[in-house]
Design goal:
Distance between the termini: 86 Å
Largest sheet: 2 strands, antiparallel
Structural class: mainly alpha
Helix content: 40-55%
Number of domains: 2
Shape: elongated
CATH architecture of the largest domain: Orthogonal Bundle
Strand content: under 5%
Number of helices: 4
CATH topology of the largest domain: Arc Repressor Mutant, subunit A
CATH class of the largest domain: Mainly Alpha
Strand order of the largest sheet: 1-2
C-alpha cells in the first residue's frame, strides 16, 4: 500500500509542476500578443488612420508600399504596378504584375496609397472619411 501511495504522490507532484509551467507559458504568450502585433502573409489590410504604423501590414504589403514611397522621396511621380513588381524582384510576368496590382489597389482602397486616374500608384495617403463629420441641419 505504501508503494501505491508513493507513486500517487509522485504523479501529483508532476501534475502540479506541469500546471505551473503551462500557466507561465500562457501568461508569457498573452503578454507577447498584446505588445507586438505580428502580421502574417494573407492577413487583412486595415484602413489607414493617424498613428497606425506601417508595421501592422503584412511584409508583402509593406514592401509594395515602400516602392512608391521611395519614388516620392527621390522626387519622382507615381509608379505602375509593373515597375513595383520589377523593383521587388518579381519580374514582369502577368501573374506577378497582377498580384502586385491587386495588393496596391487594396492598399489604395484602405488609404495607404493613392490610385491615380492613370492607374498608377502614388505615395501619400488619402484622407479617410470620418463618420458623422457632416454639417448638422
Amino acid at each position: 500500500m505504501a508503494e501505491v501511495l508513493e507513486a500517487a504522490e509522485i504523479e501529483l507532484d508532476r501534475r502540479v509542476i506541469a500546471r505551473e509551467e503551462l500557466v507561465e507559458a500562457l501568461a508569457l504568450s498573452a503578454s507577447e500578443k498584446e505588445t507586438v502585433p505580428s502580421p502574417v502573409s494573407g492577413s487583412v489590410v486595415p484602413p489607414r488612420r493617424d498613428g497606425l504604423p506601417v508595421t501592422v501590414l503584412a511584409p508583402d504589403y509593406q514592401r509594395s508600399l515602400g516602392v512608391p514611397e521611395e519614388r516620392r522621396s527621390a522626387g519622382n511621380g507615381p509608379v505602375k504596378a509593373r515597375e513595383i513588381a520589377v523593383e521587388l524582384g518579381l519580374g514582369t510576368t502577368p501573374t506577378k504584375v497582377e498580384g502586385v496590382r491587386s495588393r496596391a489597389r487594396r492598399l489604395a482602397e484602405r488609404g495607404w496609397l493613392l490610385l491615380e486616374a492613370s492607374g498608377m500608384f502614388g505615395a501619400g495617403r488619402r484622407p479617410m472619411a470620418v463618420p458623422d463629420a457632416g454639417l448638422s441641419v
